[in-house]
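request received
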Amino acid sequence: MNEISFKLIYENYEKYLEKCLALPLIKHIQIKNLMEKLRSKKIFTTELIGYSVEGREIFSISLGKGNRKILVWSQMHGNEPTATASIFDLLNFFSCDDEFNSIKEKILDKTKIYFVPMLNPDGAEKFQRENAFNIDLNRDALRKESYESKLLWQMAEKVKPEFAFNLHDQNSYYTAGYSNNSAAISLLAPPSDFEKNITETRLKSMKLIAKMCEILKEFIPNNIARYNDEYEPRAFGDNFIKSGISSILIESGFLKDDINKKLIRKLNFIALLSAFISIADETYYGCDIKEYFLIPENKPLLFDLLLRNVSILNNGKLFKVDIGINREKKYDYALNKFYYIGKIKEIGDLSIYYGIEDYNFENYYVVLPNVYVNSFGKKLTEINFLKLLKDGYGFIFSKEYEIDKDYVDYPINILYNKNYKPKLASDEYANFVIKRSNNRIYIVINGFIQILNNSEIRILNGTVIH
Ligand SMILES: [Zn+2]
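response:
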C-alpha cells in the first residue's frame, strides 16, 4: 500500500466532512443525532457504553474485523472538540463508496477500530475542561472517581487494544520548537515512568508517530511538534502505556487564519488515517525513533498580541519594554456564545517570544486610558464608541447599567468599581493607549488592538469590572 496518495485523500476531504458538526462548539445532542444516522449503516457497530455524571449517553462505534485492535477517544476535556469532528469525518470516509475503497478494505481487514467520541459530554455542554464533578478526567486514571473515567477503563479492558489514541486540543500559544511556527498538530508517545524509559510498548508508539509525522509533513512541514514528555502518573496515556497499550496523544493546535480550526480538523483526520493505514500495512515497523526525537518540541512561545520596544513612562522616566497579551476565550452558557477576556501576561524583554499579531513599537509610548463618566445616564446604545476610543477613553463608569456578566458586547470596558485603577502589569486587564509624538495612534481594549484612524472596530467585546 506504499502508493497511497494522502494528497488525493486530502483533496477529497470535503466529501467526508460531517456537515452537522461545526467547530468551535459541539454539543452532545449533535452526537446523539449522528449516532441515529450511523446505526443504519452496516459497517458500523454502535453501542451505548454508559452515561456521564449528568446522565448523557456515551457511545462507541466500532468497525473492521482485524486482529489489531485500536481504541480512539476524544473530548475527555469538554472544551476540546476538534477531534470529535474529525472522528465523524473519518466515519464518513469509511462508509463512503469511492476510489479509496481498497485502502479502507485493507484497514478494516487488518484492524478493528473502536471510537468513543465525546467522552465528557457534560463538560462539552458547558465548554469546560472538567466533567460535572469538576474533575479533570485526564488526572483521574488512577482514582477513577468519575463515571467517564471508569467507562474508559472498561472500554480498554473489553477491547484490549494494541493502540490507543487520546485526542485533545491545546491552546494557540504553542510553537514547533524555538520558532514562530505555531504547533498545528502535537504528538506524544507518553512515558510510563519518571525516567521516561523506552519500553517495547512506548517504542511502538514512537515509531508510529514517526510514520504519521512523515505523512503529515506533506501538508504542514513546519507545524508539527512533540508534546512535553514529563511523566504524569494520573493521566490515561501514561497508564495505558504502562499496561501495555501503545498510546498516542494528538493535540489539535493552532494555525493562523484557520477560522474555527477547519484545517486543523482536516489534519487530524489525516493524522488518524495515516496511523490506521500504517498499522494495517505495518509500514511503521521500519521507522527509526530518531525521527520521533527529531520532531521539534512543543514550546509555549506565542502570545495573541505582542507589542515590542514600546516606551512606558514611570515616575517621570521613560523605559522600553515588550508587552505580551493573551485573550482567554470564554463561553457564555446562557447565551450560547463565546467572548474574550484580554490580560497582560508578561512585560519586559520578550525577545524570545512571538506574537500571533506582532508589532514593533519603537518610538511609540504607552499611557493608560481614561475613564469616561457617564453622568448623563446615556444608554450604551447611544454612545459613539469610536469617538470615545479616539479621545483615549477605555472605560465607561456607570452605576446604572445592569450587567451581571464579566463582559459586554461593546468595544469598551464597563467600570462599576470606582476604585479600580488600570495598571500596566502582568495579570492585569490589557487596556492602554499607544501614542507617537503626542498623537494617539492605537488603543488596546481588552487585549484587542485598534488602529484609531480606522473606522472599522475590531474589538470583539469589552470587560466588565465589578
Ligand atoms: Zn486536553
